[in-house]
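Reopening: Cytochrome C Planctomycete-type domain-containing protein still failing for me.
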Amino acid sequence: MKKVLLPLAAMIIVCNLMMVSSCSKSNEADLAADTTGTGGSSCDTVNMKYATNVQPIISSYCYGCHGNGSASGGISLDSYASLKTQADNGNLIAVITHAAGYPAMPQGAAKLSDCNINIIKDWINRGTQNN
Ligand code: HEC
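Support: Ran it again with your exact input. Result attached.
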């Protein structure tokens, strides 16, 4: 009996360790990439600016495919002008809020936090300024 159970127990422990480590890794990545250091109640979404607040989010989550020489879907987002184009035509909010009929962004990754989405929305609501 013990001979069968021991390897099984070892496997379960290894599995759990793997799950715990991958879980904490993704949490760390989320925290590191949450450029405002917020999450939860302390999310500041008032008077959001392009350079200070919005560009760091886009850089963290989108430049891998839409910046630094990459333009997935023919779209680059690594300048104020190119991001404004996608904001003005409605695509930016549609893709990050996972609106029906649009490809969900960031592609193949978790949806942006509500905080980050609200930061981008505030910037757009204030006229999508180059500030
Ligand atoms: C892993 C690569 C990848 C990442 C990361 C990524 N995208 Fe995309 N994006 C794509 C691809 C591929 C397409 C074209 C998909 C299609 O047309 O179905 C696309 C298309 C788009 C479009 C055009 C949608 C349309 O309807 O024409 C926008 C806007 C966009 N992405 C914004 C973003 C934003 C904002 C982020 C970050 C929050 C982001 N993407 C992150 C790969 C990516």
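The first helix runs from residue 2 to 33. If you still see a failure, please send the error message rather than a screenshot.
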